[in-house]
Batch of 3 targets.
Target 1
Amino acid sequence: MNEYIKSLKEAGKLNISIDKTKTFNWKYTKIAGPCSVEGPEIVDIAKEIKLLGANAFRAGAYKPCTYPILKEVNGWKEGLREEGLRLLQQVKEETGLPIVTEVMDASMIDKVSKVADVFQIGTRNFQNYTLLDALGKCNTPVLLKRGTWGTIDEILGACERILVGGNENIAICLRGVVGMPNYRHVFPTIRWAPDLMMIPALKELTNIPIIYDPSHSTGYRNFVEPISKAALAAGADGLIVECHPEPDKSISDPAQAIDYKTLENIFYERCKCNN
């Protein structure tokens, strides 16, 4: 451990920890699924993803879109909302997989908690203190995505907002930081950049589990598999990956969605890392 990090820990500025005996089992977590709940076919997708090795299923019943105008132009959807929650409940009943889905504000917690086994907090809500405080008062596990601008102390500070409320069921999700500008998808440049170095850096400072998102951190499906392997090699406790039976037809984030074969390769690598 370098002297700078050591001094921060001794000063108590960044050193936070959780009692892992009280938390969701994040070790070797393999979360996969489409970006959004698209329709009844989500149940069959979940069954296939489970066969490929997933031990939790992700899909957004509420899925905010970064560019509302592009959403309309390209036919993107933002989840099916209440109908999406009903379909996720069906997924849980028919597959037994825990459900990871996004909660966007404090008023949604009670509704989403009826279905969700893990609350996903999106990158833009990373410092939504009203939401984080409310999450601290519930027992549902929280997967807190790093803001694309978040520093290491801001990451741990956001975790503290939840922890001080009494909820230790928390994991940090690293999902990339701001990359090169792309002018609203006009130019094919890199929207996000992987933040792999944060994995060992955070491991020096906290025992909070680290889940890596290779889909959002790259934005392109060709990069998802190699970055997944790099994240696991760097010490990530698990992965959350966007997968679709026909990636180009995904109604949300099609460019970063991978197919079943690629997911199988990634999860095989995860199994090798376990041994």
Note: The chain has one domain: 24-274.
Target 2
Amino acid sequence: MSMDNIINGIAKQATAENGDYIGDDGLLYCGKCHTRKQTRVKLFNGNTMTVGCLCKCEGDRIEKEKEDFERRERIAQIERYRSVGFPDKELRNCRFSVDDGKNAEVTKIAKNYVKHFKDFKKVGKGLMLYGNVGTGKTFIAACIANELIDECIPCIVTNFSRIVNQLSGTWEGKQEYIDSLNSYSLLVIDDFAMERSTEYVNEIVYNVIDSRYRAGLPLIVTTNLSMGQFKNPEDINKQRIYSRINEMCYAVQVSGSDRRADIKDGEVMMKLYE
């Protein structure tokens, strides 16, 4: 029995089962979308062979399954990013949608940072949110991270007290851990300068920030320090740390009644005010 006879037998069975039919060209057609389910291919020896192919509705079904699978995978990836990126679970609920609207200017800056994150990432620029306790710095930083994670961009929100505790007592694996922080597109350091100030801690702080700087990756820090304290630290050992952050971040003042930006000029920076 020839291959064509075998294929024709299968085609007749398919016709009987689901409404598919043989067209005038002798090929099998879908009974639903009326497009080919078979085609002829030319072999090297000059002969032709009839082979199966996807009709339109079957192709559409497979494409939809693929899209559904990718959508589920994306949702699962986003949830993994959020779970790992927010050791403090409460911060996972920080959203611009629940912002009280009392500090519209800083919220606008934060939203624009998210909107143009690719541009800021290219130049390794982040934000330093500074101001008194309770003015919403952590909330704004967490909102930015949550919005970026929604776009499947890996971020982590942590603090140096947590980082130091994880590295406490040993330098073994220190560099590997610091390098792992660079796997995140955005690193948010909350409550900067609230960690203990020792030679060991200052070295870790500097290494984390400097590693990010050398990798050209953005950083967001929140701090209760004033700009005066930041620019003129009493501890000379912190000068290089603060200087590095000043290079990497646009400074945004966050106050209780108003949030103003004290930001350097620059083409990329202007996108914060669109």
Note: The longest strand covers residues 186-192.
Target 3
Amino acid sequence: MKFMKRLIKKIRILRRIYDAYTASKYFNKKYLKIFKWAMRSNENTNYTYKLTKKNQLELIKTFEIIFKNSTFEQIKFFLEELEYDKEIRDHIRDSIYDSNLKEYADSIIEFSRRLGWYICVRILKPRVIVETGVDKGLGSVVLIRALMKNKKEGFTGYYYGTDINPKAGYLLNGDYKNFGQILFGDSIKSLDSFEKKIDLFINDSDHSAEYEYKEYMAIKNKLSNNAIILGDNSHSTDKLVQFSIENNRNYILFREEPNDHWYPGAGIGISYPRNK
């Protein structure tokens, strides 16, 4: 009897070990990706990566839902317009090379969810864009590149970034400076004093839930009738969906699926008016 109890106990332990092994198979490939990334990448925050082809299609379909007058092919065109834009890639590479912060960035940068930001600008044709949290300015130049394309089609727009770090935004130089500027200081204070109507707002600064919600409240009465809000923290908090419910706005969350990268991906929370 004692023998049987010990045998059953051993079987249970072996089963737990096997279960743990089975679960670990979902993560083992990540360890190899982490090692490869650590050996070749300079990035220590705001990681950049390609999206899987499947995820790119999901991104296109997400914006097809929001912009009902835009076709799948039109949205796909805008995505590929940025993805294969040699000019912006050369600008980013050269700006990083000339920067004294180049040890913290990769010379070849992918746009990931910012492809969605670009698509939004190309379709919406905003006059005023506000992005909180600039870092090196990757989002800034992506948004401005879309404004440049819009201008060639007869639609003018301007970008305002906010950041508390006076060294932020070093990618925003050359021709890109003609389409935007950075307001240095606390984002809430900058938003409180901002007087223009906002057509596109991107939250990407302090990623605490409390601060994120304060930003939405700060711009609540400054949004134009067709304004869209993109939340860079929406995969982690419920603040944008909460704000959307409180203000009778539609909301969709797009989740990233990085291609060949250890990072699980972030996303885009999209809050848009019900008349869209």
Note: The chain has one domain: 45-273.
